[in-house]
Amino acid sequence: MHDSDVSSPQTAAWPAARYDAANTGFNPDASGPTGDVGLAWRQSACTEAGSGVVVSDGRAYAGGLVVDGATGRPRWHRSLDAPGLGTPAVADGVVYVGIPSGAVLAVDAGDGRVRWRVETREVLFGDYTRAGVSGSPAVVDGVVYVATAPGDLYAIAER
After folding, report:
1. pTM of full prediction above 0.90
2. CB-based contact 83:50 (threshold 8 Å)
């Protein structure tokens, strides 16, 4: 489903949940609408609707759904079989996302191919298992940082 009645110019990016690795929540190159507004587009996000959205290289990323930021037309969709995906982070052509089962995925931003998957640990509390990635990954200098529900902090880097 795709609806549009205004144009959506693409000039700035928002590649992570709070914009940058420092979580500033501020992009000096971004601005919101200042005049009359209308719907630029709408795209059904299905299970990805629970994820936050990030914008990079003219594309909007929500979980495993990637759309053209100007038109809303799907670029690719990767079924990650994980309702409740966290907000992804995008860096150097790779989408990083944590999933509720506790895995961290690196997905190619161009075609949706999974490049790697790293499992995090689960913690058992009697009959209750605590697992999952909390929030959005942060990507700095080739290292992906994630926090998990059991209370661990992970740094994932090349060997």
Report:
1. no
2. yes
